[in-house]
Design brief:
Blueprint (H helix, E strand, L loop, with lengths): L8 E3 L17 H8 L7 H10 L12 H15 L4 E6 L8 H8 L1 H15 L3 E6 L4 H11 L2 H6 E5 L9 H8 L23 E5 H18 L10 E6 L7 E6 L4 H7 L7 E4 L5 E3 L1 H6 L4 H6 L8 E5 L5 H15 L5 H19 L3 H14 L8 H15 L1 H10 L19 E5 L9 H5 L4 E3 L5 E3 L9 H10 L5 E5 L23 E4 L10
Parallel strand pairs: 1-7, 2-3, 2-5, 3-4, 6-10
Antiparallel strand pairs: 4-15, 6-7, 8-9, 8-10, 11-14, 12-13
């Protein structure tokens, strides 16, 4: 499969994170130094004070204060008399986000400079960067690090599987430590115990780029753009029905409608802000809402990881939502009840609403299940899916009414909301000429199979999650009529051309770790 070109970068106002990208496809070290100057040095205390003076927040979705996180790493490292680790999260598990990938492909030294600045300030023993993308992003980082001696000495790159939950902080720490790239299932702060059990400063790629810009401009220069409460700029990934999808650098406070205008967006039905753990806004609200944490929160949305996915005319909103909920159910780690049973249940109800077979019962079940999973998961994944679903049901009221009372809105599902590649995933399928309605498959994999009024199986339209692989194989083996089978998913646009898999891997995909030799620690101080 041919890899897509690096994301286009645009801006409103003065360029900071996107400086030079209007002239260069990729910024090498010499060009970076010409645009941004040499990589800065400062003490940990200075870095904390600067971050706190502008209330710099992480840009990976949670919006945690950067200064507080750095301070926590400092204190833990001092108490344990050890040298911490700096971990850059460049995985972008969200299919709708490309801002971190854009930075690492097109302006890698801005991210690496922020990571090196932080590592020097903390006297860190190494910098680790987690990436996905089939090797392309890793290659960009490796090539960039080779040209900078201090980076070459201490940089390690870890490639993780391209899955939604791989971008969760605990999942990335697990991957770096040689475990499956899955959330740990219990709350654990990287600042206490992260890479190799050491205190770890963990932030996403944009956050490190923001630190580099803050060090370059100083607090007054940094605060000269944006609002007084949230100074600076943010990167937004605009996709969906945008005529010109791009990563856009925006000063906080600018109306989101201005961003959508330059991306040639006509938001007919609604706009998703914050990604698949975010919330839907009506087109009218989205046009006026200011780009900021406070502005989006007040409007009933969330900034999250800076993802903006408008839906234009000509696609079925409920069908798009149901398609994403099935994906989110499949992408869970399957470590708790809300993920193993709650999310497939929500997906089943939303699919029934979308295809017109569910009626009010499906609507009530979707609302009830989405409310029940909140606050009960081992990680934040169920909470995010709940926000996504409940806000969709509140925003797409006209489309919902059409599906409830007419069975359909009459529009196809065009797949405007992006998904990760699914070329090598298996599905349960049935040969209806053989099926006799025994119902054993329902008893083995109730997450994927329900029974209709005649006792015949109804399959949830999604690939088999890795945590259900053994049960899916068991269901195939137990079928008395030999009607059930596992077949590989076909990539969008046609058949995969592959023969059915006889067996599935029993564990999550492994991680790949790349080290740039020679690797030595930074000197203290």
């Amino acid at each position: 499969m041919k890899e897509p070109a690096a994301p286009e970068a645009m801006r409103i106002g003065r360029a900071r994170l996107t400086a030079g990208l209007d002239r260069y496809e990729t910024i090498d070290l010499a060009t970076h130094q010409e645009i941004f100057g040499p990589m800065r040095r400062m003490t940990a205390r200075q870095l904390v004070e600067m971050a706190e003076s502008v209330d710099l927040r992480g840009r990976g979705g949670a919006g945690f204060p950067v200064g507080r996180k750095i301070r926590a790493v400092m204190q833990t490292a001092a108490a344990r008399k050890c040298r911490p680790v700096v971990l850059v999260n460049g995985t972008e598990g969200e299919p709708g986000s490309t801002k971190d990938k854009m930075l690492l492909l097109r302006s890698p030294y801005l991210v690496l400079g922020g990571a090196l600045l932080t590592a020097r300030a903390l006297s860190a023993r190494e910098i680790v960067i987690g990436v996905t993308g089939g090797g392309r992003v890793a290659k960009s980082v490796v090539e960039a690090a080779k040209a900078e001696p201090d980076l070459r000495k201490i940089l390690r790159i870890v490639e993780v599987p391209e899955r939604f939950v791989s971008g969760e902080g605990g999942a990335l720490v697990n991957a770096v430590n040689g475990k499956a790239a899955l959330p740990p299932g219990r709350k654990r702060r990287a600042s206490d115990t992260g890479v190799d059990g050491l205190p770890t400063y963990l932030s996403n790629a944009e956050t490190f780029a923001q630190l580099a810009v803050l060090a370059m401009l100083g607090t007054e220069g940094y605060a000269s753009d944006g609002t007084a409460e949230e100074p600076g700029t943010v990167l937004l990934t605009v996709g969906g029905s945008a005529g010109r999808p791009a990563v856009v650098e925006v000063p906080t406070g600018v109306p989101l409608g201005n961003v959508m205008d330059i991306c040639e967006v006509t938001a007919h039905d609604g706009v998703l802000v914050g990604g698949y753990h975010g919330m839907w806004l009506t087109a009218e609200v989205a046009d006026e809402v200011p780009v900021s944490r406070a502005g989006l929160d007040a409007a009933g949305g969330t900034l999250g990881a800076g993802i903006v996915l408008p839906l234009g005319a000509g696609t079925c909103p409920l069908g798009e939502v149901a398609r994403i909920v099935r994906y989110l159910a499949k992408e869970s780690s399957g470590q708790c009840g809300p993920c193993k049973l709650g999310l497939p249940g929500i997906a089943r109800s939303m699919s029934a609403l979308a295809d017109g077979s569910g009626g009010m019962d499906a609507l009530d079940a979707a609302r009830r299940a989405a409310s029940v999973v909140r606050g009960r998961g081992a990680c934040s994944h169920p909470d995010g899916v709940s926000r996504f679903v409940l806000s969709a049901l509140d925003v797409f009221t006209d489309d919902l009414a059409a599906h409830l009372f007419r069975g359909s809105c009459g529009q196809p599902v065009r797949g405007l909301l992006p998904l990760s590649p699914q070329d090598d995933e298996a599905r349960l399928q049935v040969d209806w000429t053989r099926c006799q309605g025994h119902g054993l498959c329902r008893s083995v994999v109730p997450e994927l199979v329900q029974l209709d009024n005649q006792g015949y199986p109804v399959f949830l339209d999604m690939p088999v999650p890795f945590w259900l692989e053994k049960e899916a194989q068991q269901a195939v083996a137990m079928c008395p009529a030999l009607a059930l089978r596992l077949t590989p998913s076909a990539p969008s646009g046609g058949s995969s051309g592959k023969s059915p898999r006889a067996a599935l891997p029993s564990t999550a995909p492994p991680t790949l770790q790349l080290v740039i030799p020679p690797r030595r620690e930074l000197p203290e101080g």
